[in-house]
Specification:
The protein is mostly helical. The protein is built from 11 helices and no strands. It is globular and about 55 Å long.
Length: 316
């Protein structure tokens, strides 16, 4: 019965989240002028990911000193409170669309059309890896941390894991603000490369946890996972808000592809639950390499477009 309720709760969370995140992206896009969208998205992600800090502190305290019912009841109260706060959001004018409003079927078909647009294809690799990262630190990283802990007490173990995830949250908060501000003035592909390097560093330190059983590496890896997660998400939203003018269908595609990456990551974590953690990490690394190739391809296309533009100017 409990398992069935958990599946139902997960289904409802996914359905609600799909609507929420598309609406959030459109809201933030229309909340500010184009040249400041990177900053606005960065601040949003920083505040949102601060929940990693508060949530893990709250979870560690409640699970250590209270029973599970108190923990879930507290989360339910917080969810109701956050839902009520939506009523206080000011309305913002939506960008005017050219022509009549499209039907739902047309909007859905537009999402699939975006999938085959050449500029979108390499960005979809970043969307997918963002889902893989989400699955890694949500469903697997705690298991990896446990391999470095020398305690068998469940309450102490939860406290140690929560401490590591607090550092992950700190990395998320710092990165969202800094990368968001930089996205308004610095080359976005350069910032995306930094995000990918942070992901690779996170993988390296995660492997070091396995071989050394040193919990210090868990804290370092957590910071880099937070850095890579928030920086990639900030950059994807910055690309969509600028290159696709905040098109809701593009944000919907982002959530679809990200969810596919997360789904694959969670399935692999479940299938390999009894295997060595190194196998899971080894399987994840090629997806990160794919993201690197995608950025290299985007850079090549950007240079080709720039050279073409300069050639036209010389002809004139």
């Amino acid at each position: 019965m409990f398992y069935t309720l958990s599946i139902l709760a997960g289904l409802l969370t996914g359905m609600g989240g799909a609507v929420l995140w598309c609406a959030q992206s459109g809201y933030v896009t229309n909340l500010c002028e184009e040249k400041r969208r990177g900053s606005f998205f960065g601040v949003f992600w920083s505040i949102f990911q601060a929940s990693q800090i508060l949530g893990n502190v709250l979870s560690a305290v409640l699970l250590k000193f209270f029973n599970p019912f108190t923990y879930f009841f507290t989360l339910a109260v917080l969810a109701l409170g956050s839902t009520a706060l939506f009523c206080l959001l000011p309305s913002v004018p939506m960008e005017e669309e050219s022509g009549p409003r499209q039907s739902v079927s047309k909007q859905v078909s537009k999402v699939f059309e975006l999938m085959v647009e050449p500029p979108m294809i390499p960005l979809m690799a970043q969307m997918f890896i963002s889902g893989v990262i989400l699955a890694f630190y949500s469903g697997f990283f705690s298991r990896l941390i446990a391999t470095a802990l020398d305690t068998t007490n469940e309450a102490d173990k939860n406290w140690e894991v929560a401490s590591v995830f607090i550092v992950l949250g700190i990395g998320e908060v710092i990165t969202g603000y800094l990368i968001g501000r930089a996205a308004d003035s610095v080359d976005k592909l350069f910032l995306t490369n930094i995000s990918n390097l942070a992901t690779e560093a996170a993988f390296i330190f995660s492997i070091l946890i396995l071989f050394t059983k040193n919990v210090t590496y868990a804290f370092v890896a957590a910071f880099f996972w937070g850095f890579s997660d928030n920086s990639i998400q900030t950059m994807i939203t910055a690309f969509i808000s600028k290159d696709w003018n905040g098109m809701l269908e593009a944000f919907a595609l982002y959530r679809i592809v990200q969810s596919a990456g997360a789904c694959m990551g969670f399935i692999l974590a479940a299938v390999l639950a009894e295997s060595s953690p190194f196998i899971f990490i080894f399987i994840m690394i090629p997806f990160q390499l794919l993201a690197n190739f995608a950025v290299a391809y985007q850079r090549k296309e950007q240079k080709a477009a720039l050279n073409g533009y300069q050639g036209i100017r010389e002809d004139l």
